[in-house]
Design a protein that fits this description.
Blueprint lengths: L7 H16 L3 E4 L5 E5 L9 E5 L13 H16 L8 E5 L13 H7 L4 H5 L11 H8 L16 E5 L6 H4 L4 E7 L1 E10 L3 E2 L11 H18 L3 E3 L3 E4 L5 E2 L2 E10 L2 H20 L18 E10 L2 E2 L2 H15 L3 H4 E6 L9 E2 L1
Helix pairs in contact: 7-8
Length: 359
């Protein structure tokens, strides 16, 4: 499945979501980030709604359940309430958040981040898409018809609570033969774009000592980021790699790659970042770091390094009352087997700020 945020396919899914929730008696609000709030009134509708939800956009080759499960599960709740004519005391709702994945516009949870007050609206609107077209997020919100009039803010659209049903996206539950994961928080992470500048040269006429090979330097940096992440009991990943000029017989003089580092705590993450930056600078200049420049026998000429921080996200602990609610619900569903089938865990993926996840 491929349904990048604010693509034509995403617009179709959004239109379906709006049509479906309206048919179930919901009032629809679309804010300036394209977040869609479908709220079913209760007896005391002056109170903020309790919501569930997630996102309908995917990664370029995303799974059919990532995010979508949380939205569709919320729709099923609304459908059951509607069919049985159940009136709740307080309003309930389902939210579809925009560009939660960050795959097309490179800040994950950007629209929920604006709603939470963590990301300025102007910065989010100005994000350019990954790829050659370079359309901005605001342009695509306008094109798809989902640049809403409501302010993207928890002050304008307050929620009493928000829950998210989500697939685990990992092996823990299956490996332990457990059914439900109760998520207590989310890892801290930082995304960077790193540019390595060397010099283009001919592969046949330029010997190793005279090369400033940007791709070889980048390969060393990516490998070393993994080594340091292991040392800090953290994670490091690269998912985007670009190079120039892109010729078989030309040594690349320019490389740009993404770096995603994550840790359970903010302090460890910042220590890891400091160590990575120190070592990266040494590696591109030819110094010996864990044997990376020694084992090849010859170094060549130094490269230059540029860092750009794209998306920082602090470690988050979820509300204890919401966690208790999820735990009690899991025990009610699984009854006597709940002790063996429920697992307390931490999410490695992002989520709406302070919104407990259920795996």
């Amino acid at each position: 499945m491929s349904r990048l945020a604010l693509s034509d396919a995403d617009k179709q899914a959004r239109d379906w979501f709006v049509h479906t929730t309206r048919s179930l008696g919901c009032k629809i609000t679309v804010d300036k980030m394209g977040n869609i709030f479908a709220i079913r009134p209760g007896r005391r509708s002056s109170f903020p709604p309790t919501c569930t939800g997630s996102h309908l956009d995917t990664q370029p080759t995303g799974g059919r359940y990532d995010g979508i499960l949380g939205v569709c599960a919320g729709l099923e709740v609304l459908k059951v309430l509607h069919e049985h004519k159940i009136e709740t005391e307080f309003p309930l709702g389902v939210v579809n958040w925009t560009n939660e994945e960050g795959a097309r516009f490179p800040i994950s949870m950007v629209a929920s981040g604006v709603w939470a007050g963590d990301i300025p609206l102007e910065r989010a609107h100005g994000l350019q898409e990954v790829g050659p077209n370079r359309r901005t997020m605001k342009q695509e919100l306008e094109r798809t018809g989902y640049l809403g009039e409501a302010d993207a803010s928890y002050r304008t659209m307050p929620l009493g609570a928000h829950f998210e049903l989500h697939i685990e996206q990992g092996p823990q539950l299956q490996a332990k033969k457990q059914k439900i994961g109760i998520v207590h928080g989310v890892q801290a992470y930082r995304w960077y774009t790193i540019t390595v500048k060397g010099h283009d040269c001919h592969t046949g006429t330029t010997d190793f000592p005279h090369r400033a090979d940007a791709l070889l330097s980048a390969a060393k940096l990516i490998l070393h980021s993994h080594r340091l992440a292991v040392k800090y009991n953290a994670l490091a990943s690269t998912g985007i790699l670009k190079l120039s000029p892109g010729s078989t017989n030309t040594v690349p003089g320019w490389v740009q790659f993404s770096l995603d580092i994550r840790s359970v705590t903010d302090d460890v993450l910042m220590d890891l970042e400091k160590h990575i930056k120190t070592d990266f600078d040494k590696i591109v200049k030819g110094s010996s770091v864990d044997g990376l420049n020694d084992e090849l026998g010859v170094f060549g000429r130094p490269c230059n390094l540029e860092w750009k921080l794209d998306a920082p996200s602090r470690a988050t602990k979820f509300d204890s009352g919401c966690i208790s609610c999820v735990k009690q619900s899991a025990e009610d569903v699984l009854e006597n087997a709940s002790g063996d089938l429920v697992h307390d865990m931490l999410s490695g993926a992002g989520t709406v700020p302070s919104a407990p996840k259920i795996f």
